[in-house]
Amino acid sequence: MWQSHEFNHGPKESIIPQHSITTIMILEALIAMSWFVICDAWWIAALTIAIPLTVMLFFSKTFRSSFFAWFFVYIIGPIFQPRTIAPRRKAFQILKDSIADRDKKVPLEVLEIGVAEGPNLQFYPENCNLTVLDKNKFFESYYAQNAKKFPHISYQRTVIQPAENMSDIADSSLDVVISTYLHCSCDDSLAVLKEVRRVLKPGGKYVFLEHVCYPENEFGLSIQQFINPIWFLFFNGCTLDRNTASKIKRAGFSEVICDKYISPEFMMYLVRHQIIGVATK
Question: Where is the Methyltransferase type domain (predicted)?
């Protein structure tokens, strides 16, 4: 069963005056053009003054992974992480609601895939046995340092493997699998979802938060497609224009509940459209 909802931040009004609609459209157009100029400048910089870095990112996967871990923690994190608190909090509220009836005395067996440096740790409920997995080994030291700040979580182990082949994780061993902003950089989302279903216990929950493509009739999709090749290199395989919701829908879960989230933040324009939800094995 597939359920979909949509929500935005900010107040909702039943009737919007025509002049307000016109103003909103003008603002949206200005924001889109601003981001087109930013992306154009990024292309020019990547192919001129930053071309040595671009070449290294293109030819060396090891360098790209190492650079991305540093770039994510020290550059991207301070800019973007504060702007993802609201959707992350929403995802973990969905988790808490979905397990509200379980015996809280029994530890919750959780796997987070694509954990990076651990930006979700602050949202975990009490009494969790947490295993984390990431394909990028260069995040491990950053995660270990960050994890010390959250002693309410019982850390089990760190697994360095791609989510498409989680061979170190036993079948039907987990109550919950969590991923946030993971499928954008997976080589094969359907293989990841197959693995998620394999490691979940019957009735287990897969909680997801992902940025996705703009609707086909919006200019933002063209901007995503324009910047994708450079974005892919600098963000270690991240692709902006994926339709992850449709893949989760057809992955074989017994139920999928999905909310659409639209970020109001200017800095989040390229990843403005997001999905938050829970799938049940």
Answer: 111-208
